[in-house]
Write a structure and sequence with these properties.
Elements: E1 5-8, H1 14-24, E2 36-40, H2 43-49, E3 55-58, H3 64-73, E4 76-78, H4 83-91, H5 97-112, E5 118-120, E6 123-125, H6 138-149, E7 153-154, E8 160-165, H7 166-181, E9 193-195, E10 199-202, H8 203-216, E11 226-227, H9 231-238, H10 245-249, H11 289-294, H12 296-306, H13 313-321
Parallel strand pairs: 1-2, 1-4, 2-3, 5-9, 6-8, 7-11
Antiparallel strand pairs: 8-10
């Protein structure tokens, strides 16, 4: 089939940058680097990707005409990041900005005749491979706050939180793109939800292991975590709006609904688990809970090396909290 150009928006970000970098290493064997268009926002970001071998373009995603022109000029396919899931998200769209975005992307794509896919990462971790931002948001914020306060804190409720390593997430994107390039038609639109849950860890177990790891390095005063006295106290320490603090650090990727009970796993080796499910496309994550904790010092090392994520997520949450 004819070569297909792939436009990666947010190519300077943690996930987008890692997708570009990992695609260049052969995650998608049939995709040539010359067919990757990396969209970034600033000249500084463009310069960071200039030696990667991909086509780099500056793009303001709020400018619809500019986005359309970029797609047409590069003859590219814009790929996003079951009907029952869509219906649930639409009902809950105003409860969280990401849900509203998912619904908007699907409805706008359908109205324009564009095929869309929604890839939903849970708590993503690991040092990224991109040229600009190599840090996720969630875990680095917790590590930085813990080091600053000389203590690790956790929420009172012990929630199972879904995790995925950045390399497994880029591999999932790779599987979807590979299917498209092979001429297959993976489920899309309102049926095209792809959940990247690799494994789950209880929030208390994570806090226990992080406290032990930081204490062993002399970065906190106690190997045992304390409990946040309130969501407001946690929000102030972590630097996010109180409205969203538990969404970010004390919630799992699960929607309990009878309509979802028959969903298929996107993993060939995993059972159906409600919202952690989707079409089977042969995705097989390499990370699990045991491997995560075996490499928890790598999470600390990345933060000590890089500081914090170059991300606008927290700023966007403060803007959303004012609405």
């Amino acid at each position: 089939m004819a070569p297909t150009n792939i436009l990666v928006t947010g190519a300077a970000g943690y996930i987008g940058g890692s997708i570009v970098a990992d695609f260049l290493t052969g995650v998608v064997p049939s995709l040539e680097k010359g067919n990757i268009i990396a969209a970034v926002r600033s000249e500084e970001q463009a310069a960071a990707l200039s030696d990667s071998g991909v086509n780099v373009t500056r793009l303001d995603l709020t400018d619809g005409e500019a986005v359309a022109k970029t797609i047409v000029d590069h003859d590219s396919t814009l790929r996003g990041t079951g009907n029952e899931i869509f219906a649930i998200e639409k009902q809950l769209a105003d409860s969280y900005p990401v849900r509203k975005t998912d619904v908007t992307v699907i409805e706008q794509a359908q109205s324009q005749g564009v095929i869309s896919f929604i890839v939903i990462p849970c708590l993503t971790h690991g040092k990224g491979t991109g040229a600009w931002n190599k840090l996720s948001v969630n875990i680095p914020i917790v590590i930085n706050a813990s080091i600053k306060r000389k203590e690790v804190r956790r929420f009172a409720d012990n929630i199972k939180v879904s995790y995925v390593h950045i390399s497994d997430l880029t591999a999932l994107y790779g599987r979807i793109v590979e299917k498209i390039l092979q001429g297959e038609e993976p489920p899309s639109g309102s049926e095209g939800y792809y959940f990247s849950t690799s494994y789950q860890i209880s929030s208390h177990h994570f806090a226990d292991q992080l406290a032990a790891a930081l204490h062993a390095r002399g970065l906190v005063s106690s190997p045992k975590p304390e409990v946040w006295p309130s969501a407001e106290a946690a929000a102030e320490a972590l630097g996010v709006p109180a409205k969203f603090v538990e969404y970010l650090w004390n919630s799992g990727c699960v929607i309990h609904s009878p309509q979802l009970s028959q969903a298929n796993s996107i993993r060939d080796d995993a059972p159906s688990t409600g919202i952690g499910s989707g079409p089977k496309i042969g995705w097989k994550p390499k990370w699990d809970e045991e491997k995560f904790f075996r490499h928890i010092d790598d999470e600390v090392d990345a933060v000590l090396e890089l500081g914090k994520a170059k991300s606008s997520l927290v700023d966007s949450l403060f803007a959303a909290a004012k609405e």
